Amino acid sequence: MAYFRNLDAQVANLLGLLKKDQRWLILVNADPDAMASAMALKRILARRVTSVGIAYVNELSRPDNLAMIRLLRIPIKKLIPTLAAQYDRFALVDSQPHHHPDFAPFEFSIVIDHHPLLEEYPPDFPFYEIRPDYGSNSSLMTEYLYNMGLRPGKLLATALLYGIKTDTQSFERDFNDADIKAFRYLTKFYNPNLLHKITRSEFRVEWLKYFSQAFRKMRILGKGLTAFLGAVDSPDILVILADFFMRVHGLSWVLMSGLHDDKLVVVFRGDGLRRDMGKFAQGLFGDVGSAGGHRAMARAEIPLENIGNQHAQQFILERLARKRKKKASPKPAAE
Ligand SMILES: [Mn+2]
């Protein structure tokens, strides 16, 4: 019994598309799983065609993504028309063409993905494999490498392992047996120090000033923590900080707020066990702005004109206090 499922028929179809004089460009909406998948496909295409490039369509700013590109030497470039003009065949991994407007102009010969299939976008490509039951596209690519007798080198194995790790949130989210098998298989080839370095690249130097602000301004309210940061360069920093403080033992919810684009942005994070953050956000700010989300994460955005002359921090604290008082006071006895 082979370790992975047999892909002889698919591999024959895939190889049937390749010709020596072709120049292939692999497109991605870059995240770790997509970049690892592109590296794997490049490995498959290399030496069978004239050249293989990798291009991304989104903004790349997450530190772990940047660390991955640098440490695993991923030759990825921003997609621009002059770059696309150098290629005559196009492939897409970890995405489908309707996922991003910049994919629309291309005619894809290969699509390998694990996102859901939508009825209104039936796949119609010379080669495709779309498997929504897979937790990560990297697992799918690992199966292809294995079936083609291609042993992943240290850098590729580390990339694929990180792809599986991020997409399955270290197997805390949906995954199947192939994801587990691929993960175990790749551990024979990867470099643990590289993986550790990429995993721990979580913050940017420019963000550290916000950490010191948050430590100075934070208030503990029972099992919760809140901090108002004033103006922030990007609301993303509120998300980073909220996730960071959720790692403190004993806290069950965190509320990080700041001002951006004439709005008060409030990011909610919870442990998903007690309070429902979506309802919490709705109850606190639903009357003055957009507010909502899931059990463990939510967000509110309040136009500053809805706050009036009040200081934003005061506005939040008063609403929190009102909520706590309401919760603490016993129900009035029936008359
Ligand atoms: Mn993916």
UniProtKB/TrEMBL annotation:
Family annotation (InterPro entries): DDH_dom (IPR001667), DHH_sf (IPR038763), Oligoribo/pAp-PDE_c-di-AMP_PDE (IPR051319)
Residue stretches spanning the membrane: none
Highest taxon in the source lineage: Bacteria
Signal sequence bounds: none
A Pfam family it matches: DHH
DDH domain: residues covered: 29-164
Protein name: DHH family phosphoesterase
Lineage, broadest ranks: Bacteria, Pseudomonadati, Thermodesulfobacteriota, Desulfovibrionia, Desulfovibrionales
